[in-house]
Amino acid sequence: MKPLIRLNLREKILLGFGMVMIILLIIFAVSLTSLLKLGKASDAILKQNYMSIEATNQMLDAIEQHYRMLSDFSPHNKPENQKAMMDEQLRFEHWLIIEKGNITEKGEAESALKLEQSYRQYLINIQALTERNFTTIVEKNTHLINLVRPQLNNVRYYCKQIMQVNQATMFKSSNRAKLIAHKATFTLILIGILGIMLAIIFSLSLSSIIVRPLKNMLDALSKVANGDYTARIEYHSNDELGIVSSEFNHMAQKLSEYHEMNIRTILKEKQINEAILQNMDDGLFLLDTDYHITNVNLSGARFFGSDPATCKGKHILELIRQEMLFEFIKDTALQGKSPVFTEGQNILVNEINSNKQYLQFNLTPVFQQSGVLIGVMILFTDITHLKKLDKLKSEFLMIASHELKTPLTSMSMSIALLKETAESKLDDAEKELLQIAVEDTQRLKALISDLLDISKIEAGKIDFSFENISVESIISKTLHSFITMAQDKNITIESKLEPELQVRGDFSKLAWIMTNLLSNAIKFTPQDGQIVIKAIQTGAYIQISVADNGIGIPYEFQNKIFDKFFQVASYLNTGGTGLGLSICKEIVRAHGGTIWVESEPGKGSTFSFTLPIG
Amino acid sequence: MSQVRMLIIEDEINIAKTIAATFSKTVYKVEQCHDGTEGLKKLQTEEWDIVFLDIRLPGIDGMEILKQISETQTPVNVIMITAYGSIENAVQAMKYGAVDFVPKPLEPEVLRDIVRKVIARRLYTEQNVAEYQEFIELTKLHIKSREYQKAHVVIKKAIAQKPESAEAYNLLGAINEVLGDNIAAAQAYQMAIKFDAYYNPALENLKRITSMEANSASLLDLMATLKVRE
Q1: What tens digit of pLDDT does each residue of A114-123 get?
Q2: Chain A CB within 8 Å of residue B55 CB
Q3: Which ranges constitute the DSSP H helices of chain B?
Q4: Neighbours of A176 (CB within 10 A)
Q5: From A502, which residue of chain B is nearest by alpha-carbon distance?
Q6: DSSP-assigned beta bridge partners for residue A545
Q7: Is A560:A578 a contact under the CB 8 Å cutoff?
Q8: Could you tell me the CA-to-CA distances from B131 to A12, B123, B161 in Å, in that order?
Q9: Is B21's Cβ below 8 Å from some Cβ in A?
Q10: In terms of Cα–Cα distance, which of A614, A405, A389 is closest to A500?
Q11: What 3-state DSSP class applies to B98?
């Protein structure tokens, strides 16, 4: 339905107020008119009639006085009596003049004229009387009464007439004023009531006009804010509110579409993520702060012989009965960061379906954007095949070395026996050949032995049992075996150890390192040399060093000497296998320390390594 | 040595030959067998003083042959040829009276030395030994005869003579183990390692004994307390 009048909101409001204004004006006008009328009426009442009445009162009073004096005084020719009477006469005439000038009513003019005539006659009659002489007062008074009194009565009569006329008018005016007031009151009340009603109606409808659509808008807005994009405003009008409503409806529509699109996009992403999670080989667990499983993917659940549906909600320990893992999980949650693992610590051995499975795990704390911890994430990677590979590698090495040892045995035996028996039968050149064979079979033996050792360490097969060991005990143990060797070359070995130093490590492995370093030191130091063993504490580590003043190591080789099989060219014939230092490096690494060398060719070398404090 | 009748049971022909060559000029007779069955037969039909027995043989296993030898109560001394540096079941072999082990790769002097020791040992008794090394040998003699209690006594004497000997403690551990006291055995192995940090036989023995499931609980407790060094 098209509205007949197109008004915008401002116009509507103005119209509403305008109406109220008009009503106010009407009331104002009516009141004003009534008051004016009233004023006029009372005005009239006050001025003229009052004057006439006053005049007639005064005249009456004057003439009464005059007559009284006339009748009382004898002789009436006394000067003071004359004066008094003259005063009254004057008074009467004064007020007569005023009255004559104050003719307002109908008939008042005739009455005033008649009054004047009567007065004149009164005076004339009095004059006539004074010209006669009376013998007695009684006679005077009889004549007074007969002659003057009727004139007096006439005067009285006309005064009264005038008074009456004026009074009547006054009365009429007063009545009229009363009536006007009455009517005005009535009108005002009526208009007032009407006005109030209209005002109320207008205000209500106005507020309704404005408030209702606003309220609708508010409802619709809050619906949209809460996610219901179907809300629309039903307000069809051409004012600003109508425009807002239709714009709002547009917006809601757009939001709805956008929301739909978003949902589709999010769903799609979610599906992709879901697909990735469920298809990946690694197992993913998400735990809440009570360590219950909130999310797990297919692989994760399968690793432990379950399925995602069953796992959800369970405490992690229910599914994976591994205390060590749980300790790490708790640590991650408490510290708010992933734990630092030493070699092999983050591997779980999982027995499932009577198969051993090696799972490497990673722990990550999960935070909300506000920084609050909401849980821990565990990622399991199946490294069983890697472990198998490792196992195969070690097995291969084992088998290989065994296989190698067999021909080596017979070979070294033969050569040794030959050396024993055939030496006398050989010339020098042949003896030398034999010697070469002897030496190199020795080397082969050492090589195979070292190779086995290093492969064991690398594969983690060699067990390290860590305990708190006094540095002094390691050094003294190993020094013991080198005393003779050092004495042979007249080398002095000195140890400078800080007192009561303790390290955390495996005694036999550490002794191995010291032996290796000492043996190298002695080997590469000439006669009368010095070897100094030092041990100091640096921060959280103990640093042990073996320093000699031997031939040193060329600069270009200094970081290569820890490589496998590396031997500095000129030292190739010193009987080493080239594996000793790399084994040392592996052992030091397994302890969490570092090993390095400082050397100056011709001056000597210092090998140092660090171990954690025990 | 000239009286010694030596049998070599070793499937690697070359190794057997070189062992034989080491002794051929010094012993009475030396023969080689290249498989277990042949070896057993030879053992049963002829008399021998020293037998070099490889732990790994095709056919009948070396350990099995050892078992059979021990059951016959012959005076033959078996020297086990081992691989990997240390025998995994040295103690098992000890239960069958084998007490001498020589690891590959072999050396002539080492072989001769051990044979000499074995021969000399035969004459040892409680009365005529006083030196550490002699005590060790006497211990081994008793082990060979399966007289473990006697061995137990003598090894302690050896320790008394040389209190910091890893070899002696290792031997004590093995004897304890044979006698069934695994805890005492573990303790003895620990002592051996304490005195010689990389005395392989003791290391291997300790590793083996602590990983045996039968021992788990009590042994692991023990190990836990032992791990704290001063």
Answers
A1: 889 988 988 8
A2: no
A3: 13-23, 36-45, 62-72, 90-95, 108-121, 132-144, 148-161, 166-179, 182-195, 200-211, 216-226
A4: 17
A5: B230
A6: A534, A608
A7: no
A8: 129, 14, 7
A9: yes
A10: A614
A11: coil
Burial B144-163 (b: 16+ CB within 10 A, else e): beeebebbbebbebbbebee
Tell me which range, A369-378, A420-429, A585-594, is most confidently predicted by mean pLDDT. A369-378
Dump pLDDT digits (tens) for A379-400: 999 988 888 887 787 778 777 7
Counting one residue from chain A and one from chain B, the pairs whose CB atoms sit within 8 A come to 73
C-alpha B137: how far from chain center: 11
Token representation of residue A132:
């006669």
Q: CA A94 to CA B40: how far, in whole Å?
A: 188
Residue pLDDT, tens place only, A218-277: 888 888 888 888 888 877 777 787 888 888 888 888 988 888 888 899 899 989 988 998
Distance CA A356, CA A453 (A): 26
Say how far apart CA B171 and CA B192 lie, in whole Å. Answer: 9
Q: Which amino acid is at B189?
A: Y
Chain B residue with the nearest C-alpha to that of A404? B105
First CA to last CA across chain A, in angstroms? 94
Is the per-residue pLDDT at A172 higher than 90? no
Say whether residue B113 is in contact with chain A using an 8 A CB cutoff. Answer: no
Instruction: Please list, in sequence order, all residues whose beta carbon lies within 8 angstroms of the beta carbon of residue A306, skipping any fewer than 6 positions away.
Output: A319
CA distance A420 to B108: 9
Q: What is the dihedral of CA A214, A220, A226, A229, to 10 degrees?
A: -150
Backbone angles phi, psi at B155, to 5 degrees: -60, -35
Query: Which amino acid makes up residue A84?
Result: A
User: Scanning the structure block, which residue is given the tokens 């807002």?
Assistant: A244
Three-class secondary structure of residue A172 per DSSP: helix
Q: Which of B13, B15, B226 to mutate to test the interface with A (most CBs of A within 10 A)?
A: B15
Instruction: Let me know: does B138 contact B152? Beta carbons within 8 Å.
Output: no
pLDDT per position as a tens digit, B61-111: 888 888 888 887 777 889 998 876 555 677 888 888 888 888 888 889 999
Query: Interface pTM (ipTM) of the complex?
Result: 0.78
> Of B173, B193, B199, whose CA–CA distance to B185 is shortest?
B173
Query: Is-above-0.80 flag for pTM?
Result: no
Q: Quick one: angle between helices B148-161 and B132-144, nearest 10?
A: 170
- Interface check for B58 against chain A (CB to CB < 8 A): the answer is no
Q: Which two tokens stand for residue A564?
A: 């496998």
Beta carbons of B164 and B180 less than 8 angstroms apart: no
Pairing of strands A530-538, A492-497: parallel
